[in-house]
Write a structure and sequence with these properties.
The chain has 163 residues and is mostly helical. The chain has seven helices and no strands.
Length: 163
Amino acid sequence: MKHLLDFYRVRFVIAFATQVQYRVSSAIWLLATALRPLISIAVWSAVVQAQGGNVGGYNTSILAGYFMIAMLVDYVTHTWVYEQFEWRVHEGYFSPLLLRPIHPIHDDVAQNITYKILMLIVVIPVTILLLIVFHPLLRLSLLAGLAFGLALLQAFVLRFLVE
């Protein structure tokens, strides 16, 4: 188990360096993560205001809460394993990875976790901005919040393994 923890420690450092190396690509992903909920809320806020403050029983605060949660779900469950896996198999890089003492899935896990940690740089400020500007309505009890967090973690694991 210690060798696996050492592997993850090293892979986190390498994945962080790789993410920082591709600054433009990372900036595009960060920008997309930040703009998607902002644009959605702005558009639907305009629709709600044009309709007199209510569309289908939803007001701006409810829609802002929805798009904040959607951003969180997308952020946590997003993975790109299927793209890398297909490329590895197609180009012949997967077979040599299977000969290593540690399964290649551990490298993918480390890369995904590192990416999610780096994306917190954008997700946290965007969430705070959305809270300040749009005053989203989020009715969440402690038990529902815990269940949501557990379901979100399971969704990430399921999506990661399926891909």
